[in-house]
């Protein structure tokens, strides 16, 4: 299993699609080209979290079947594409399920807008615990409440005056983090009263929320009970050159380049 990240701006999402550059497609081609797998059409890759078009990742996880030793595997994978970074690895048994992570952590970055966002700060606490996610996801059944656990939603200010919204949970329904950010924006704008938000999360009403843009969203980490055993000592030259030419990354460039630890 490998820990990996990517700049989502250059990909049409995770899942391979004919005629589009995707994270899965590039990894499959790289596995074949580098001799890690026999062909780009080999069996399904198991990934911890699938991301939409434009969403980036710092700490996703992927299962790879190979005879390569972990250290050699990381080094080889980092030659696939400079927009991909494979940061760590460890051996897992055949029955291990990569999707069975302890938690997933997402961060959404917002530029400064001059607002204090005090209402959103208050609303963030409402999301902690078991909530009805029918208002927070796409393709969620409309009938009875669909309850999922959210560990926390926290908001912190950036040095530039923007804010980072971090959401932690064992798992997410499709589009959940972007809908949470949309709900916080609606509260800030005065269009969503806190009482109605609380009722929606309790399952008493259902909200119709917009979906915020995907580009500022980063899958920050997928956490497991077991530690990573082999850590990449990079980045390599192509990765450094790639990031040096990117001027609009939504997460910290220094962390993407330098934080390769577990």
Task: Provide an overview of this structure.
This protein is of the alpha+beta class and 262 residues long. The chain has 2 domains: 2-100 and 224-258, Alpha-Beta Plaits (2-Layer Sandwich), CATH 3.30.70.580; 103-202, Pseudouridine synthase I, catalytic domain, C-terminal subdomain (Alpha-Beta Plaits, 2-Layer Sandwich). Helices cover 24% and strands 23% of the residues. It contains 7 helices and 11 strands. The chain has helices at 23-33, 70-77, 118-124, 176-188, 194-202, 237-244, 253-258, and strands at residues 2-6, 46-47, 56-63, 84-89, 103-110, 129-132, 147-150, 152-157, 163-169, 217-223, 230-231. The strands form 2 sheets. Strands 1, 2, 3, 4, 5, 8, 9, 10 and 11 form a 9-stranded mixed sheet that branches. The mean pLDDT is 88.
Describe how the helices and strands are arranged:
Layout: E1 2-6, H1 23-33, E2 46-47, E3 56-63, H2 70-77, E4 84-89, E5 103-110, H3 118-124, E6 129-132, E7 147-150, E8 152-157, E9 163-169, H4 176-188, H5 194-202, E10 217-223, E11 230-231, H6 237-244, H7 253-258
Parallel strand pairs: 3-10
Antiparallel strand pairs: 1-3, 1-4, 2-3, 4-11, 5-9, 5-10, 6-7, 8-9
């Amino acid at each position: 299993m490998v820990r990996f990240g990517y700049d989502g701006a250059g990909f049409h999402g995770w899942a391979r699609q004919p005629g589009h550059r995707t994270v899965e497609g590039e990894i499959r081609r790289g596995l074949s080209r580098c001799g890690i797998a026999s062909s780009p059409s080999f069996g399904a890759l198991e990934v911890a979290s699938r991301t939409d078009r434009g969403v980036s990742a710092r700490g996703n996880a992927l299962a790879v079947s190979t005879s390569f030793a972990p250290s050699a595997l990381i080094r080889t994978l980092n030659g696939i594409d400079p927009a991909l970074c494979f940061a760590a690895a460890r051996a897992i048994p055949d029955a291990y399920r990569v999707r069975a992570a302890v938690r997933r952590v997402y961060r959404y970055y917002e530029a400064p807008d001059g607002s204090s966002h005090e209402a959103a700060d208050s609303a963030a606490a409402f999301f902690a615990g078991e909530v009805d996610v029918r208002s927070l996801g796409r393709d969620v059944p409309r009938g009875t409440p669909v309850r999922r656990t959210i560990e926390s939603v926290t908001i912190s200010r950036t040095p530039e005056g923007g804010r980072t919204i971090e959401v932690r949970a064992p798992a997410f329904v499709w589009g959940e983090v972007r809908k949470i950010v949309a709900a916080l924006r609606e509260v800030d704008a005065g269009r969503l009263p806190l009482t109605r938000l609380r009722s929606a999360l309790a399952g008493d009403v259902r909200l119709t929320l917009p979906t915020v843009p995907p580009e500022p969203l980063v899958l920050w980490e997928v956490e497991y009970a077991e530690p990573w055993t082999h850590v990449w000592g990079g980045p390599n030259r192509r990765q450094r050159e790639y990031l040096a030419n990117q001027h609009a990354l939504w997460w910290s460039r220094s962390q993407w380049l330098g934080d390769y630890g577990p």
